[in-house]
């Protein structure tokens, strides 16, 4: 004896409730899809957009091109943003370079960073919207305004990268160095992103009906995924080392003093280094027309003095062509407060601001006496005077006279950097610590009695530093002001660094990134394994779902003449129970009213497509 008509009616009513719940969920989901499509293509109304039919491409050829351009723009803007953010160590040099060319001060470096971040955020938002729309099975349509925005972003990224690569090619070395610190975290982020992308990729992969398209999609995805998985095998970082092998922190040498806290190359600047506990002082020495060595980095006085006010007709004259009585009249501190090159002047105490306002040009003799008083080592660049200068041929001996006869410093506190007449200098004063500004073979360095190397941080090499240290030749790296670079120099074994940010770096008690090989392995292996497992689950789920939908579609065709009718929804063709019982008779009055909600829902669903 079969089931009664009442039982069958209850079962069908239960099915109707399920369908109704699904439709309601879909209907409630529409505002989210509308928001996505509206932001991406200005398609705020349902009739303006369409779902991707099974087996078809997610968009037209033009929109495929737009989506590809969006991906390319995202990648290029990401590269430039990362490149410029990691170049932050040298922003001050970039700004002063522009000052020398444009004639006025402006923080171009920060503005460029903000613009790059804004463009990247814009294309990232568009890419996220596109991925969400693909995950919802929607066809892509990018508004023409966004297409223009993408082209502007792409042009900016290409031009900025090309110009900066030409002017500051060494910054690419900085970028490569940064990977030794950031690569482990970039690897985790990249794997996470590829894992998230597996959902829309699997969804469309199993809906494609062209094998070539499937092969290309899967090939690209798997190639990128496995490249990310294998990144840790080729990663090198001096900060991934066995426990107990980290050496002492590099000692800190103030670059032109403490230029973030006081005007560079002034008495106040060097006293700030002493207060902060720095071990050395670095400066630049020029000889005045009447033979007084003084501290000045630039060839002219325009940037760091008020020469425009005192000597308006000699603004661009060489600093070495001024005599000392003229130099004494200049203010060497007011510019620091008005231009605020590091953005730190506003944080100074009122007493420090007043003191900075009244700094004067500092002499080499006073500089050496300050170092001698506090027992600090000194290192300086010595500029040869121009042609026609009385001391053009005796600038070395004049500087040695100040060291030996006019100051109280000991010769072994001086790291002698000038390479000119080095043999003569060694003969006159063997106690000076001979320092070279370039790398050479150990034999060549030992022949020149070199005890220290002064190298740009971009040439940092743990192997080279260790090799030189084995023969008692120490390495100083300049100019390092970012904590991540200082951490890298620490891990590489550098004995000292020259810095603008001594007050910041002195607070580091350990490198920002330090990990044993075993701990790093525990970090990346589970990441790759979990990612692979999740991606496999996602692909299996979509394969199962699409296989089930295909089976359901074939079953539906077989029942077209049965007791079912269909109506259109946003998700797919959903089959609803008609007002006919299993026995071919109309449903009783008890059940029929309950089915009206489905009809109402169908009407609501249809009207929701209208504007």
TrEMBL record:
Residue ranges occupied by any GP-PDE domain in the UniProt entry: 250-509
Keyword Transmembrane helix: yes
Protein origin, superkingdom: Eukaryota
PROSITE patterns: GP_PDE (PS51704)
Transmembrane segments: 67-85, 105-134, 146-165, 185-206, 218-236, 523-544
GO CC field: membrane
Subcellular location field: Membrane
Any one GO molecular-function label of the UniProt entry: glycerophosphodiester phosphodiesterase activity
Statement: the UniProt record of this protein carries the keyword Transmembrane: yes
UniProt keyword list: Glycoprotein, Hydrolase, Membrane, Transmembrane, Transmembrane helix
Main localization of the protein described in the UniProt heading: membrane
Membrane topology: Multi-pass membrane protein
Any Pfam family hit: GDPD
Gene Ontology BP annotations: lipid metabolic process
Family: Belongs to the glycerophosphoryl diester phosphodiesterase family.
Protein name as catalogued: GP-PDE domain-containing protein
Organism of derivation: Anguilla anguilla
